[in-house]
Amino acid sequence: MSKPRDKRMSIDEVVASLESGMTIGIGGWGPRRKPMALVRAILRSDLTDLTIVSWGGADVGLLARAGKIRKLVYAFVSLDSVPLEPNFQRARQDATIPELVELDEGMFATGLKAAAQRLPFLPMRAGLGSDILVNNPWITTVTSPYDEGHGHEELVAVPALTLDAALVHLNRADAHGNATYLGPDPYFDELFAMAADRTYLSVEQIVDTAGLTVDTPVQRVLLNRMMVTGVVETPNGAHFTNCVPDYERDERFQRAYAAAAGGTDEEWAAFEERFLSGDEEAYQAAVVAFAEEGTK
Amino acid sequence: MSTDTITRADVCAAAIADAFKDDGEIFASPMGLLPTLGVRLARLTSNPDLVISDGEALWQGGTPPLGRQDVPEGWIPFPRVFDIITYGKRHVMMGATQVDRHGNQNISAIGDFAQPKRQLLGSRGAPGNTVNNRTSYWVPRHSPRVFVEQVDIVSGVGPKRAKEAGPAAARFNDIHRIVSNLGVFDVRGADDRVRLLSAHPGVSVDEIVEATGFELELPADVPASREPSAEELLVIREMLDPKGLRFKEVPHG
């Protein structure tokens, strides 16, 4: 009996399929359910000059610190319990990211929607009157052809955020790319997938198709395989962001990250050496060792 | 309960609750601790119809204490929050690193956008909030560094800028209240300027003027912000914040 394609890949195969200069969307939200194993693999690669589109957390901080970002599209960058992301702050205050597109959150979501609908833009009120339009003079307005009793309203023409590739992390997938999220919030991962030419999905666990819904309603199957190019099993792959119910955010690790990122160059070098100098397996082993120190 | 036991944090909670009392059945969306306390106080007293969330993805059927959950009455993940913003039945109370004489707010960065002196969060949802639904601000430490002549970057749009941006921007712009640890303000002064509505008990008008980096519109008589009722104090102290988390944001004294 024929089955849909098997899309299982390794982390290295995903990164090898990306190219410098690409526009890459990163799913999740701030410090929540981020495809961190894939982000770490980009840090290890020679990819450069990337345009990153993200609800920013440590993904943005790490890529900025590594000098991977030529252009950043964001509405915020935050670690929640550490409100200001130290690596992002440093990059902004030292002006090391050549091009910045700060959007309102609603504009960011609408830009993904436009891309997912293959439209050049969608109209919106958000942005009007704010410095979003001052700092992004290329974003312009459009006049409504309709008068709904309030005149021909002049609205922001939110440009499509079309992506070359999207990276997302969910709880479970089958080998074909159907995937469930088991936490409280889908975030915008489906929109990222539909806004992108190619979507690479990392998951806590690859299961057979029946396993996707064995203990959870079918409404939790967020991604259909037609939206997905490749699937990678990366247990604890969202660390140190959360991936509930599999795990909460590693707050102790995040504090250590933030302290190193906001500290001296030597402190950051020590953090990099300890956690980011090897492959994903080495990272996870270093995380286990770090956790054991904390319980002593 | 005698009035000498009423703290500044309790007065702030009541002032925040009052900002939501006439909202009817809408999504009350507080950012931060005192706004959450004030919104929940309103829901237990002046406006039981308010719709509140746990700050994550669940609408709360009851009114839980700070940091706790109640039975959900619905699902409000981030994508749906943006749907409610444009739907309009929402009142958000945000923070403000800077707020200026015309009620513009900045949470993006301090200094030049191209190379800020201090990068903050980014503008988050402030531009969209302020042209779509009612927006208020909470400032726990009123100072001339927060209340500035002109914000460095306009994240949240005040009424004057909204009008200048055109009818589509002004149509739903509704900056309702600015509550600080010193007083209560709106932006309905002349030329859409920030106006003092009340000074918290124990705070003089001079103190507020001194702590504000622009010329405030002052009414001839400045009333004192009201003190919370005995019922409200009971709700704050015994139900919503028995651990006194509010004093971390607005200390005693």
Question: What does the oligomeric state look like here?
Answer: heterodimer
Strand order of the largest sheet of chain B: 1-4-9-11-12-13
Compute the separation of the termini of chain A in Å.
54 Å
Mean pLDDT of chain B: 97
| CATH fold label of the largest domain in chain A | Glutaconate Coenzyme A-transferase
How many strand segments of chain A? Answer: 12
User: Per CATH, which architecture of the largest domain in chain A?
Assistant: 3-Layer(aba) Sandwich
State the separation between the terminal residues of chain B, measured CA to CA: 18 Å
Q: What's the SSE pattern of chain B? A: HEHEEHEEEEEHEEHHEEEHHH
Largest two-chain interface: A-B, 45 and 46 residues
Shape of chain A: globular
Quickly count the helices of chain A.
10
What coarse outline of chain B follows from CA principal-axis ratios?
A: globular
Q: Which CATH first-tier class of the largest domain in chain A would you pick?
A: Alpha Beta
Low-pLDDT windows of residues of chain A: none
Number of DSSP strands of chain B?
13
Number of domains of chain A: 2
Largest pleated sheet of chain B: 6 strands, mixed
Would you kindly provide a written description of the structure presented here, covering whatever features stand out?
Chain A folds into 2 domains: 11-104 and 161-249, Glutaconate Coenzyme A-transferase; 121-159, no CATH class. In chain A, the strands form 2 sheets. In chain A, strands 1, 2, 3, 4, 8, 9, 10, 11 and 12 form a 9-stranded mixed β-sheet that branches. Chain A has a 3-stranded antiparallel β-sheet with strand order 5-7-6. In chain A, helix 5 (105-116) packs across helix 7 (189-195). Chain A is an alpha/beta fold and 296 residues long. The radius of gyration of chain A is 20 Å and the shape is globular. The longest helix of chain A is centred in the last third of the chain and has 16 residues, at 280-295. Chain A has helices at 11-16, 36-44, 58-65, 86-93, 105-116, 132-135, 189-195, 251-261, 265-276, 280-295; strands spanning 23-26, 50-54, 69-74, 99-102, 121-124, 141-143, 154-159, 163-173, 179-180, 196-206, 221-223, 230-233. Chain B is of the alpha/beta class and 253 residues long. Chain B has helices at residues 8-19, 33-44, 78-87, 126-132, 159-165, 167-170, 205-210, 230-240, 246-249; strands at residues 27-30, 58-60, 72-75, 90-95, 98-100, 105-106, 109-111, 116-119, 134-139, 147-148, 175-180, 183-186, 195-199. In chain B, strands 1-4-9-11-12-13 form a 6-stranded mixed β-sheet, sandwiched between helices. A 3-stranded mixed β-sheet of chain B has the order 6-5-10, with no helix packed on it. Chain B has a two-stranded antiparallel ribbon with strand order 2-3. In chain B, helix 1 packs across helix 2 and helix 2 packs across helix 8 (230-240). The two termini of chain B are 18 Å apart. Chains A and B meet through helix 4, helix 5 and helix 6 of A and helix 3, strand 8, helix 4, helix 5 and helix 6 of B.
